[in-house]
Amino acid sequence: MEGKAQDSGEERARGEDAVSYEKGRGEEKSSRKDGKARDEEKSRAEERPREEERLWGEERPRGEKRWRGEERPRWERSRGEDRPRGEERWQAEERPPGEETSRGEETLGGERSKGKERPRGMERSRSEERPRGEERSWDKERLQGERSRGEERPRGEERLRDKERLQGERSRGEERPRGEERSWDQERLQGERSRGEERPRGEERSRDKERLQGERSRSEERPRGEERSWDKERLQGERSRGEERPRGEERSRDKERLQGERSRGEERPRGEERSWDQERLQGERSRGEERPRGEERSWDQERLQGERSRGEERPRGEERSWDQERLQGERSLGEERPRGERLRGKKRPRGQKGSWRDVRSLGEDKVFQETGRGSSCIVRCPAMFPTGFVWPRVRVLRVFLALLAVLPASSSEWKAGDFQDCTWQVVLNRFDRVGNISVSDRFYDQELVDTVDSVFSMLVDSPIDPQEKYLGFPYYLKISYSCEGQPSEDLVRSGHLVGLKPLVLVTFQSSVNFHRWKIEQLQIRMEAAPFRYPGLCLAEEVCVMSWFMPMPIRNGTVVVKVEVYSNGVGPFIPSKRFHVNINGFLKKQQNTIEFTLGSELFDLAPQYFLNASSRPLWYTLDQSPVLILGGIPNEKAILLTDTNFETFSLVELSIDSCWVGSFYCPQADFSATIYDAISTESTLFIRQNQLVYYFTGTYATLYNRSHSSGSWVRVLTTECIKRLCPVLFHSNGSEYIMALTTGKHEGYLHFGTITEGRVSFKMLPKGRSVCELISVGNCSILWAVFVSGDYKVLLLVEIQGHAKSFCVVSYSLVTNDAKVLYIIPDFIPDAQGMEFLMMVGTEKYTSSPMVPKGMFFNTYNNLLFIWGNFLLQSYNEENYTYLAGFPKELCIKYLVNSFGGDIVIITETEEIWYLLEGNYRVYRLFPSHGWSIHSSLQMLQQSSLYAANETSVTFFYEDRELYQLVYLQGHRQGRLVKRLVPVEKLLLYEQQSHYRLDRQGSHSVLAFTNACPFSTLSLLNLPNPQAYTREERYRARPPHILESSGFHSEKSLAVYQGLLYYLLWLHTKYNKPYADPVHDPTWRWWKNKKQDQDYYLYLKRNWLSAGGVHIDMASYEKIYNLKSKYQLPAYIFLDKGNSYQFSLKMRSKEGSAFQVQRKLAVGFVLADPHCIEAFAKQETTVIRNSVQFLITLRDKKFCYDQGISGHHLMKTSVMVKVQGSSGHCFQSTHLGLHMQGNLMLPVFIGCPPGKRLAFDITYTLEYNRLLNKQYFDCVHPDPEMPCFLFRDQFHPFFLIQDLVTGDSGSFKGRYVLKVVGGGPTLDSLRDYSEEEIYRFNSPLDRTNSRIWTTKTIETTKDDAFHIMSPESFGIEWLCLENSPCYDTIPQSIFSPEFYFKVLVSNRGVDHSTYCDYQLIFLLHIHGLPLGFRRALYIAMVSASVFVGLVFLYITFCLLWPLMVKAWNTLLWKMNTVITSESYYYSTSLSSSSQISGDVTPKLSLKEDDGARAEAEEEVLI
User: Fold this and answer.
1) How many CA atoms lie within 13 A of 1404 on its CB side?
2) What is the mean pLDDT of the chain?
3) Helices (DSSP H) in 307-392: which residue ranges?
4) Residue 34 confidence (pLDDT)
5) In angstroms, rounded to a whole number, what is the distance separating the alpha carbons of residues 1263 and 1436?
6) Residue 356, exposed/middle/buried by CB under 10 A (0-12, 13-18, 19+)?
7) How far apart are CA 572 and CA 565, in angstroms?
8) What interhelical angle do 2-25 and 27-47 show, nearest 10?
9) Is the predicted pLDDT of residue 934 greater than 60, yes or no?
10) Are the C-beta atoms of residues 452 and 434 closer than 8 Å to each other?
């Protein structure tokens, strides 16, 4: 009774509050909402199909249950029911608060009331208890509720099926203490709370606790900071007061799920955007809702916002969890929204960051962690809908439309995302200085460290070979990152704690000299290891730390590129590439590092840069480890860098003199300035006045140290050099440089060649000057360009006569001939109003003279530029085009080419112009309106890379991006910085500066013209890149550390060093002629250790690994399946007849499909159309208004002869252009702007690197065993080189192995086999001469010198050698009389052996490939026959010895008895003589004894007689 009275009192109070609230709101709004809600409900009911109404609205008898899509029992408690605080419901048994239950308990668990368990199926009405076992149909209970007397529910209130299914109601006035947590199951099936319930602040509720929570009363107050769960708010909705829904009425579940009805009188302000998830699951908001200004909400917070009770206020800056805000229900009446609160679709407050988690779909069932302000939450997303056999399709369509609605918001969110400005930082540390804070070393030491092997000796029971010697590299690479305005140490520590790991891709550049070093594109992807600096740390466990990894070096490489990127965890840090090159111009002097070519200056004085103009940066492209830049006024100093000007040094050169001149070398004035500076792979060149010097660095990885220079070497001492001209590309294993002379040798040039640090010059032309070759009197060479592909030099010649004239001359280094290609007009043509003008000889000219200054040639597209106060270009050196966009009032100083389709023009007045190759329009970048906008914005942001007073030093391209080295003059001292020139941004600013005013109604609006013909452009169906880029990639990860902190020590880093060294050693060793059974360099490493892999894993898991280090065999492997990154590679290699395909998809901005076909067109610019072809197949998609082109590039099989893998490749290119897109189309990403519409793809035609021919010893042994029915190996077998018997037929097989992709297949082409060397032992091997090779292998030999023969009839064109193939007959060994293997002397008692050096080549006989597969391998043959004479001699000697032995045997047998008898007689005589002497001696003794007595002599005489008789008997015997 007390409970009922209390319930009645609370209902009356609640009703009074509702009535007073309605009166305060006004009757007009109430009536308007009532009518609107009823009309909407009637229209929805009438539109549903009858079949759906039958299935969903049909009543069933009580007690009948339905599962998933059918009827389910409804659990409902009366609102007047009073329960104790903290009581748990819908569980099979009581648990303490916060304890989780299984999902089975959640779904089927019982309900408890006041300590008493309620059985299933029991339901209560709102005023009385329902008997047990009574069940109500799902649809009936879903749409119709039994309401208490006097209770009014707001109209338009929506209720969901899952809410009505498992909902229970909490008694009114129930309070929960602060911080109480409830389990997932408890909250999932919790009933609704009664009105008037109050919850304290800070209470946290789990996701599923709030999932199915019932509605709150209007008078319920929720404190600030309350968080509500995902599932509760997902399925929560509120019905309008007093609304009654008829039985059988169906509502779309998607509509119930995604739509919230706004309360009466609610108005949304104009322009307000709401997120898809907010509109999808948000309930109705109360009237008069207000939000305080300045409140900032995260994307997830607004996305999942739920319902707040009336009168609830949230403080500014309050953050809510992802699940809490994602699916929160509607706000109750009277709730005030803080002003300024922004939703997802609106602009994000400054400083607030988005994350990649924001764009995940709602149905994604993953557990991830979101960090923010020191808190995290783990989210589990349940299934979105229960499975059922009835599911209206219209609901799926509505969900799809809702998904489409979220796409613009998400894309705008990414575009507007304010990413934190973070960047990677790397420094070098020596091997013995790892762990020292703030230490940076220079990369000059090239000797390996041998102290690593002592660490490996302790690693017992590890998958290493104890017999191998493990070495280490001299340097570590220390990696960290920094963000603007934050300390780096704190960032590194926090990044490590959240799981950030730097991944590093190390790329080795092959050497120029391919005759000594193998050409390969080698990469290693490594993972940096966390290392904690030693020292006392009182505050935290980790005070200062960094990531370390070994910095590998290898023979044949001095240029190393390091790209650092993130593993995707933690803050967003863009990848960054560093140049970590070896500096061979440093030396260690008394514990200090000094330059070998001069003294370092540490003061960058302003006079070094302020009065100097910019100058070009000349070096061998992609091969120079050190770059130098001269041009410092009146100083013999240069800027030197080995990191592409990330760091640099000012070095004063130690050269002898600069005041040398003579009568034949006129010099107007003398200066200490270094005018020309060129760097190559190993050598630096400078010109000071008319003198030329060079300095060769110390590079032990390239050549012998004896090639290095101790000081600057002056060359061309008798010549007067007026200019040095660079050669940007190497060829034929060497680098080149050209020096133009003046004075007595005017009209000549000196052509320099640099090979392995050795420099040599020769004067060209030979015999006669260029003036004489072109039949002119006096001339002067102004510029020279070397075209390595044609082995010719293009010369810009000034002809001196009555009037100066200029021409382009081509000189061939092969034939020593010269011819005039083009005579430059005297005056600039009149091309006013045109972008370009074809020079055909009939054009009009202005009065401005045409003064050429230099030339530039691009070997990729054969584009020749002649520049001065004009700009001419030509594709074939015959037809020239004048670019009219460049003003004739300016004069070009130098050009900078990216060799990727971009050219930057620098004028004498330091203006910057830009040109896209293949186009004719020239754009001015500086000074321009776009530059003014960009520099002003940078100054407003207080960028450290911009200043009011600037002086350009040089411009250069790096990874197809333009960089500027600029001197900034500050208040205290100047700085020299390297900064990116945003070409795309400047062009976009310039494009947007042209606008118009359009009239719309009574006001004008700005309108910009977008000249880009497409809205989006994307590349599709790109093939895997490795087959075309030929990049070999390995993976190496640090060893596992058996330490709880996870930090590496110096010993574990040393193990990392040794393992990386051994991996590179295996890669080098794998280049051998005999093929392994498994085509992988790492196979030999682990082949004997794989069987013990489980044992090593057992040691690791039980923390028993020796040294606390576990080596994972899977961490060191070769990668063969790299995927494309949806962009074209930097270059591709094409073999004979190979093709490269990809798709280009564009979407038009407007128009029909027919208009799209006309507007979106693709064209090609081929540098060598006779060598390569390109075509596109067009496909138009009408629905999406897009066009897709399948583009194919194919080699024509005509332009290249066979060559060794990677040698003498032909350079060409293909440019794919979209019509009307040049300079107009840009793609905006979080990494910046990128130009679209022009795709430049360099192509190398020839034999790609990484292909080889290998001797298939495994299959050869198997086949020869079957062919000969036997196989006999050597007496002492060698597993690396098996033996073959001389008398057996030999049938070799070979493999074509691709070291890049891992493919290995039988070589089925034709080849020529020759024996080019040999010897009876490995130490006595020698190479044969050409004459000997012909005699030993040719079937035409008549000197009886052939080593082998075959039954194959096919021979070469000159019939000199046999042509073999896998289908041909085998080889029969001959070793004729004059061959080197004839009459081989055996080295032991076994049969003679011989080692043949065999050459296999397909050159000239196999036309299926550009590759000249040359394989030289050793073949061990045993059982060779002896020569006739030597065999006869040995037979005769053997027979003689045998006969002699027989004779001796017979003689011995016959003479043996006689010899025995004679021997016995001799013995008898000797005994007789001895006996006689004994007798006479005894007689004398007897005679002497008779004197002393009579008895004694008688006895003695008898005894003597007996002894004599016995002696006589013995003799007779």
Assistant:
1) 13
2) 76
3) 322-326
4) 53
5) 40
6) exposed
7) 10
8) 100
9) yes
10) no
Instruction: Give CA separation, 1195 vs 1164, 1205, 1308, 1402, 1407, in Å.
Output: 15, 17, 22, 21, 14
**Do 925 and 914 contact (CB within 8 A), yes or no?**
yes
Please compute the mean of the pLDDT values over residues 146-163 and round it to a whole number.
Answer: 41
Say how far apart CA 462 and CA 1190 lie, in whole Å: 52
Residues 532-552: what's their mean pLDDT?
A: 81
Q: Could you give the percent of the chain with pLDDT greater than 90?
A: 50
How far, in Å, CA of 846 to CA of 1242, rounded?
38
Q: How far apart are CA 679 and CA 58, in angstroms?
A: 88
CA pair distance 547, 258, nearest whole angstrom? 47
The model's confidence at residue 661, banded by pLDDT at 50, 70 and 90, is low
CA distance 892 to 915: 13
Q: Using CA atoms, how far apart are residues 317 and 341, in angstroms rounded to an integer?
A: 10
User: For residues 727 and 725, what is the distance between their CA atoms, to the nearest angstrom?
Assistant: 7
pLDDT digits 0-9 by tens, 64-121:
433 333 333 333 333 343 444 434 333 333 344 344 433 334 333 333 333 333 433 3
Point out the least confidently predicted range of 525-534, 922-931, 1328-1337, 1473-1482: 1473-1482
Residue 894: HSE in the Cβ half-sphere, 13 Å Cα cutoff:
15
Structure tokens at 892: 């070009």
Task: List the structure tokens of 905.
Answer: 């023009």
Q: 522-525 long-range contacts, Cβ below 8 Å, gap at least 24?
A: 522/554, 522/1031, 522/1032, 522/1034, 522/1067, 523/1031, 523/1032, 523/1033, 523/1034, 524/552, 524/1033, 524/1034, 524/1035, 524/1036, 524/1060, 524/1063, 524/1064, 525/1033, 525/1034, 525/1035, 525/1036, 525/1119
**Among 645, 575, 580, 644, residue whose Cα is nearest residue 423:** 575
Instruction: Name the token pair of 1292.
Output: 């070799």
Contacts of 99 (CB under 8 A, 6+ apart): 183
- Measured in degrees and rounded to the nearest 5, phi and psi for residue 1411 equal -80, 130
Residue 531: both structure tokens together = 């290392």
Distance in angstroms (rounded) separating the CA atoms of residues 228 and 304: 10
Question: pLDDT tens-digit profile of 1421-1459?
Answer: 999 988 778 778 888 888 999 999 999 999 889 888 888
Amino acid at 321: S
**Residue 820 CB: number of other CB atoms within 10 A?**
16
Q: What size, in residues, is the chain?
A: 1517
pLDDT tens, position by position, 1182-1194: 667 788 999 999 9
Q: Each residue of 1080-1118: pLDDT tens digit?
A: 999 988 888 888 989 999 999 999 998 899 999 999 999
Q: Taking Cα atoms as reference points, which of 1042, 1103, 1052 lies closest to residue 531?
A: 1052
Instruction: Find tokens 């043996």 and name the residue.
Output: 1456
- Six token digits for residue 86: 């903290």
**3-class SS shares of the chain: helix, strand, coil, % to 5:** 20, 30, 50
The torsion of the CA quartet 1151, 1157, 1158, 1162, rounded to 10 degrees, works out to 130
Burial 1266-1296 (b: 16+ CB within 10 A, else e): eebeebeebeeeeeebbbbbbebbbbbbbbb
| Structure-token pair, residue 423 | 């960047």
Strands 1371-1373, 880-883: pairing is unpaired
Asked if 630 and 674 count as a contact pair (C-beta separation under 8 A), the reply is yes
- 1144: nearest Cα among 1213, 1214, 1223, 1212: 1214
| 38 vs 266: CA distance, rounded Å | 17
Cβ–Cβ under 8 Å, residues 886 and 913? yes
List the one residue out of 372, 332, 165 whose CA is nearest residue 253.
165
Radius of gyration of the chain (CA): 47
* pLDDT, average across residues 1263-1274: 89
Percent of the chain with pLDDT over 70: 68
pTM: 0.72
- Give the residue ranges of DSSP H helices in 296-392: 299-303, 322-326
What is the 8-class DSSP label of residue 135? Answer: -
pLDDT given for residue 35 in this prediction: 53
